[in-house]
Design brief:
Blueprint: H1 2-11, H2 15-26, H3 35-42, E1 48-50, E2 53-55, E3 59-61, H4 72-77, E4 82-88, E5 101-104, E6 109-112, H5 121-131, E7 137-142, H6 151-162, E8 168-172, H7 187-209, E9 217-221, H8 227-239, E10 244-247, E11 267-270, H9 274-288, E12 294-297, H10 303-311, E13 314-319, H11 321-326, H12 330-344, H13 350-355
Parallel strand pairs: 3-4, 3-13, 4-7, 7-8, 8-9, 9-10, 10-12, 12-13
Antiparallel strand pairs: 1-2, 5-6, 6-11
Helix pairs in contact: 6-7, 8-9, 10-12
Length: about 350
């Protein structure tokens, strides 16, 4: 109700200004998250085990909202089962020139060409270290600097920095807004990059925490992949024993759009991505044979959308653009809806529903 009243004023602002305001508005909510409540949720019927982690519910905030790890605990307090911060690069960078973020209101969509704007790895690591004792599932989405001569080395450096601080590490080679980045999805390049990331994470996690625990490595893929790409990436994911595949990032394709901003370059997210992202999720389910957990993202705006991904094989789901249109209450609405759908269809757990795909 409150968000509906505030929405016209927020939408009158530049999208980046509105985004910054939303971060400031939810930040105080972090104080509402209590370890006892979080532990209770971890034991609830919506809890999901993926890659050795117990997620209190299957809905997460996707990377892109909290680029600098400013509000992960506030997001958890809003009802998300996990928060993925980033993308974070080794060095701070301003990103692409403005304007670079567009609301497509008529399409309930967003186009962005942000370009991994963030304050850099050291600043984010300090924030994550300060909140580490609070617990909760907080993943870190890793990126490479635009001007880096060795992007694989950037990912390895970020893995080493973040391994002691992250619940999981997500390798993002699927953003369309950094030149040359998607080329890293080429099988040969991807295999070598993942080897570097895994080695760096293992070395740093043990040294940084005094234990041999290494956060699982997730890989975020684009929806704009050919069948050969999908098969190759699936084989690599199985071979490297990745913790999960995140399917999918924004798309450079353009369905028919009603908004006057529909011609803008960048990655398209929101409602128009829904069908393509669902199709890619099913493709990766078939290609992996269920051997790698899947996280469904792209166009999820309701419990029905989330449940459709779960029934298509996703163990977890994420959203971001939908919160622009629905407000911060969307997390609890979707989680409650998933629980009702699970009960209605006779599933005891989310894992059971995902396995039935």
């Amino acid at each position: 109700m409150i968000y509906r009243l505030l929405k016209p004023a927020l939408f009158a602002l530049d999208p980046e200004a509105a985004h910054a305001l939303s971060l400031a508005a939810i930040k105080p909510l972090a104080a509402l998250l209590r370890p006892a409540r979080a532990e209770s949720e971890r034991a609830g019927r919506l809890a999901v085990d993926v890659a050795g982690l117990r997620f209190p519910n299957p809905l997460g905030m996707a990377a892109g909202y909290d680029k600098d790890a400013e509000v992960p605990d506030a997001l958890l307090a809003l009802g998300f089962g996990f928060a993925e911060v980033g993308s974070i690069t080794p060095l701070a960078q301003a990103g692409n020139p403005r304007p670079r973020l567009f609301r497509l209101v008529e399409d309930r969509a967003v186009i962005n060409r942000m370009g991994f704007n963030n304050a850099g790895g050291a600043a984010a690591a300090a924030r994550l270290a300060a909140r580490r004792a609070r617990g909760g599932i907080v993943g870190v989405n890793l990126g490479a600097n635009k001007d880096s001569a060795d992007k694989a080395a950037d990912y390895a450096a970020m893995a080493a920095l973040m391994a002691p601080l992250a619940s999981y590490l997500a390798v993002n080679v699927s953003s369309p807004n950094t030149p040359g980045l998607r080329a890293l999805q080429d099988p040969t390049a991807l295999s070598g990059l993942l080897d570097e990331v895994i080695a760096a994470a293992r070395g740093s996690a043990g040294a940084g925490s005094g234990s041999a625990h290494t956060p699982p490595i997730f890989l975020k893929v684009a929806p704009d992949l050919t069948p050969a790409d999908i098969d190759a990436i699936a084989r690599i994911a199985v071979d490297k024993r990745l913790g999960a595949l995140i399917v999918a990032n924004t798309t450079i394709s353009r369905p028919v759009l009603a908004s006057p901003h529909g011609h803008e370059s960048g990655g398209l997210s929101g409602a128009p991505l829904r069908a393509l992202a669902l199709r890619r999720l099913r493709d990766f389910r078939d290609a992996t044979g269920g051997a790698v957990p899947l996280i469904g993202v792209g166009g999820i705006a309701s419990a029905d959308d989330a449940w459709e991904r779960i029934r298509a094989g996703a163990s977890l789901v994420q959203l971001y653009s939908a919160m622009v249109y629905e407000g911060p209450g969307i997390a609890r609405r979707i989680v409650r809806g998933i629980e009702k759908l699970m009960a209605r269809e006779g599933f005891a757990t989310i894992a059971e529903a995902a396995a039935s795909a």
